[in-house]
Amino acid sequence: MKKQMKSIITVGVAALSAFIPTISSADNNNEHNLLGYSVAWKQTAAEYRALYYQGFNLAKMHLDKALMEYKKGDKPLAIVTDLDDTLVLPLEYWGKLIQNNKDFFEDPLWDEWIPTNGMIPSPGSKDFLEYAKRNNIDIFYVTSRNQGEPTWDLAKQNILAMGFPLKDDSHLTVLTDTSNKETRQNEILKDYNVVVFLGDNLNDFRRKYYIKGDVDGRIAKMEEDKDLFGSKYILFPNPTDGHWLAAIFGESEPEASQKNREVLLKAATKTAWQDK
Ligand SMILES: [Mg+2]
User: Fold this and answer.
1) How far is the CA of 273 from the centre of ligand 1 (A)?
2) Cα 162 to ligand 1 centroid, rounded to whole Å
3) What is the C-alpha separation between 157 and 116, in angstroms, rounded?
């Protein structure tokens, strides 16, 4: 399981427009795969990679400022970071999904793929982490994953395979039965001055953004904190998965069904020009 607990779909699908085409992942030529654009963007767009450099450059500026302002007796400095789609990119996994003619996230394939260490460091991540380490800034990895009993060991193995620094085991937290990172974040905040949080999901920053089945409500929560993005919160792009899907579907890993394909297209036409 990638992270989020399974839950019952709560989004109503009633009143779907008749113009929504019938689309199935079983299309022989895969040409209507709903994941196509998102995955192609992740695989190829220079803009996608540049956004990582942008995020880490920003984060480094905040580290430099915190280092300059640091006084003896202050709490030690730290960063708290997510793993998947923040420090590492699971591009192979998404490519395999498309190759397999799948258009929704697949837990079994994900769980099979994680032990291969096939992810790559996101652009700029390694330099940023090494810079933090060189300046004695503690790096706390907080991730939500569930591959059963070896979950924590697999996450550690991924971190080491990428060449990322890991100070000790207490600096890696893997949440297997919840995606709520706030308990661990609060523990860290007690003892450290967390300069920046890094993530691809608003849930990587605070739990308040975890809102199911309410797209506008989730956007409104984000708007409350607009000044924190780019300052305390460094956000990376992820158009394929995350809690933004829970706002649409009521759960983060919706099943591959015709009904959910229609829900996605309904979301994509949230606004549309009505030209008579
Ligand atoms: Mg992530």
Assistant:
1) 34
2) 16
3) 10
86 CA → ligand 1 middle, Å: 6
Contact 214, 247 (CB under 8 A): yes
Residues in the chain with pLDDT values less than 70: 1-29
Which pTM does this prediction carry?
0.90
Q: What is the pLDDT of residues 136-160, one digit of tens each?
A: 999 999 999 999 999 999 999 999 9
**What 8-state DSSP symbol labels residue 176?**
S
- Cα–Cα distance for residue pair 15/19, rounded to 1 Å: 12
CA angle (10 as vertex; 7, 11 as ends), nearest 5: 130
How much distance in Å is there from the Cα of 30 to the middle of ligand 1? 27
92 C-alpha to center of ligand 1: Å? 16
Q: Are 143 and 175 in contact (CB under 8 A)?
A: yes
What is the Cα–Cα distance from 88 to 84, expressed in whole angstroms?
Answer: 5
CA of 229 to the centre of ligand 1 (A): 16
- Give per-residue pLDDT as tens, 13-36: 444 444 444 555 545 568 899 999
From the CA of 17, how far away is ligand 1's center (Å)? 33
- Show Cβ contacts of residue 192 under 8 Å, excluding neighbours closer than 6 positions: 75, 76, 77, 78, 138, 140
